[in-house]
Structures
1.
Amino acid sequence: MADKMLHAIVNRLAAGHSLERSQWRYLLTLRDDDDKEFLRRSAADIAVSHFGKGIYVRALVEISSYCRNNCNYCGIRCSNKSASRYRLTKEQILNCCKEGDMMGFNTFVLQGGEDPIQDNEWIADVVKSIHAEFPDKAITLSVGERGYDAYRAFREAGACRYLMRHETRDEAHYARLHPANMNASSRRNALLQLKELGYQVGSGMMIGSPYQTIDNLIDDFMFLDELQPHMIGIGPFIPAQNTPFEYFKSGSVEFTILSVSLLRIRFPNALIPATTALATLHPQGRLMAILAGANVVMPNLSPMDVREKYAIYDNKKSNGNESAQQLKGLENELAGIGYYVDYSRGDYVENKK
Ligand code: SAH
């Protein structure tokens, strides 16, 4: 039986209130299995009461593994000379979307490194063409920091969602994860600009990234409170070879699941994916996240011959039920826990309940 304090805090969250630092600390340092199970079940109940047993699907197209940035954790950082590089053409991306449309997807996510060749005009043009061909589909971008004018041009071209994790709220921790030319405040500023432009905005952080402390995570939760994102992506850190963090250990699956529960309880309407990083570290990772309140999966729709090259971390899963080509497998997997694939666009709705 979970203790009184836990019930009181969960009730406070469920009533839509934010928490004090000490209360976040209490939740993030829970050790007792019954307490964690109580959180997980509360989160799953909240997700079901808001979204039913439907899990939204987004088709993910990884458009380039070239990147001008040099994030210390990322396998496609520019100074990784052994990374395999590719960039999709506009025609290849449109073909992916056609294939995705036939499979039944209603959302496309274009994600990539900050590739100088795929510049802002190019991205806007690709979005415009997808939007012209599939006016009813939601187009999501996750192409890094591009500046206000670019976000506006992408929006006008037809993009309606943008994923950009804040990575970590704490400036000093951010500086340990990134090169000197990147900073936490410009990332946060970009998120505010995206919101102002009317995007449905996704943010989030890795769990267990090098040097991350509980205080860092508390700052992350408090920042999300402030930002009120529509989507929140979290996944365990996984080391990538030939990066400065190659020999660090992966984030904990269990702690990631606990964090998913907390996010769901705090943000009942948010779109929260069961991330590929979780599925990479644990064969049941995706199901565990769904049973802790996640309500989105993002199957990989990149062309088969480039999937292995978008290696932001080692052994990244892109086959099996992570693959857009295996929707039947995903349907069966979800059916096994009493859930189903919801093929609709799955826009953010305030007061979904
Ligand atoms: N260039 C885009 C997309 C980045 S990839 C952008 O800047 O937003 C999407 C996310 O993958 C990143 O935001 C990061 O949180 C996560 N990621 C990158 N490397 C990782 C690693 N080694 N382990 C786990 N997650 C990682």
2.
Amino acid sequence: MKTPEEFLEDNGFRVDAIDRTALLTSFRQEMQEGLAGRPSSLKMLPSYVSPEGDLRRDVPVTVLDAGGTNLRGATVEFPSGGSGAVISNREKGEMPGATEYVDPDGFYEAFAAHVRRTAPFAKDPSIGFCFSYACETSPEGDGKLLYWTKQIQAPEIIGQWVGAELARRLDPRPPKILVLNDTVTTLLAGKATEKPGVRHSAYIGFILGTGTNVAYVERNANIGKISIADRDGSMVINTESGGFSKITQSAFDRAMDAKTHDAGAQMFEKMIAGAYLGRVGLEIFKAAARNSFFTPEAARGILSLGSLASYDLDNFCANHKTEQPNPLDRIFATDVDRSVARRLATPVFERAAILTAVHLAAFILQTGGGTDPNAPVCVCIDGSTYYKTRTVSFPKIVQDELDAMLKPRNIFFELAVCPDDAPLVGAAVAVLLQRN
Ligand code: BGC
């Protein structure tokens, strides 16, 4: 009988064999291809937004935030004299299409309702819209949805300019709707609210929650696929790093992927993000059950389990009890089953943390910053998977791995907790930034 570790290895799941150097190189190559407009699994989408400039103060604006699960609307302003944002009229609902199909009218109406509610409080009628999905951005700041991730069921929205579609359903029409990726708003919010006096040579916005993605600031001269007059300037790039595909999947990743709405897509995201870790774990458990790793009762239980949330897998592996019953506690009722199950699934989280670090290293290097210890690269991080996973500590593993990869290169960086409500704050920053 094989050990759980040997079983994982036989199926291509090996945490100790992650080739960090090779992955780092592939990430950087894919970035270059994406920036040049050649085929690449990294979309490298120009945002036409730069984080430089001063904020207009005392001007409340309407902001929207469409995430994987929730939709929020609010009013945000930056009072003069303070460095923080004030958020009011905040309301939260469900992201349309998250649990069932929604048609375009139903989809946009969910956002329009928030705008009607908050518009009377705004002094500038432009809207900042944090939209946490892959969009091509127009130079004017609208966003065209390229494809859905996070299993959203609203197929007609794909290919639409989301800001324009929303605007035409509003009366009066807002003069401008800026559609921004959540990694872009994280980066903008992080920079706009940093303490006076701190120096950073470059900025990265990173999300690891239901989905994952990275944005960073790139020199316009390096973005070969667009022609932009200001070759000396720079702009934020939404890399759509979750789409990275130059990585070897295990048999369990492939089995899980085959059951998703977007099989073959978002390979990297499906190895590290919250929407998928539970599903990968379930595939491992089912395969292990078929290979007699569990008692017959546990095997029957796990083979009949239809779905497994990352949250439950994490709490089980970390032996953390909550008020809500965890299906795995019922299924793995004996000490032996529990121990085998934990040995099989803990590596799902370990692998995710290491891969997270490797790709962050690649983006830190791509910024070209961090050569002066007094001006590190600021990596502004948001997301529940990163901060709330209990089985392993993402912040610790990422810090250690990045130290090991970047210290020998004399590259300095800082992992920063992003400000509260970064999607709302960053969306307002985008509307209120004025170039000097
Ligand atoms: C989306 C990205 C988003 C990320 C984090 C991914 O599924 O493709 O656009 O930034 O999730 O929310």
